[in-house]
Amino acid sequence: MKERIYVDTSVLGGANYSEFHEWSRRLIDEFKAGIRIVVLSDLTLRELESAPEPVQKVITEIPPKTGML
């Protein structure tokens, strides 16, 4: 069974900041590869609607087929 990881907006935003890029990017790459399943709350999805465009783009990198909840 694949591990499910709850991700909030700060993890997605971290992919765009050098301070957190390495860890956020590694996790996002695992989601993209289907190694882990990303779990997003309704609140996180609402926050993403008003987040800067680069942050919004990060979640679109994860294909739905990887089991995003």
Outline:
Helix content is 49%, strand content 12%. The chain is mainly alpha-helical and 69 residues long. The mean pLDDT is 89.
Describe the structure.
- The protein has helices at residues 9-14, 21-32, 42-49, 53-60, and strands at 3-6, 36-39.
- With 69 residues, it is mainly α.
- It has one domain.
- It has a two-stranded parallel sheet.
- The longest helix has 12 residues, at 21-32.
- The model has no long low-confidence stretch (mean pLDDT 89).
What's the SSE blueprint?
Layout: E1 3-6, H1 9-14, H2 21-32, E2 36-39, H3 42-49, H4 53-60
Parallel strand pairs: 1-2
Annotation keywords:
single chain; 69 residues; mainly alpha; two-stranded parallel sheet; 4 helices; 49% helix; globular
How much of the polypeptide forms β-strand, as a percent range? 5-15%
- Judged by helices, strands and strand pairing, the structural class is mainly alpha
Gyration radius, in Å: 11 Å
Between the first and last Cα atoms, what is the distance in angstroms?
15 Å
Q: Say what oligomer this is.
A: single chain
What profile does the largest beta sheet have? Answer: 2 strands, parallel
Order of helices and strands: EHHEHH
Which shape, going by the Cα principal axes?
A: globular
Helix % is 40-55%
Stretches with pLDDT under 50, minimum 5 residues: none
How many structural domains does the protein architecture include?
1
Helical segment tally?
Answer: 4
Number of strands: 2
Instruction: Give the spatial strand order of the biggest sheet.
Output: 1-2
Q: Mean pLDDT, nearest integer?
A: 89
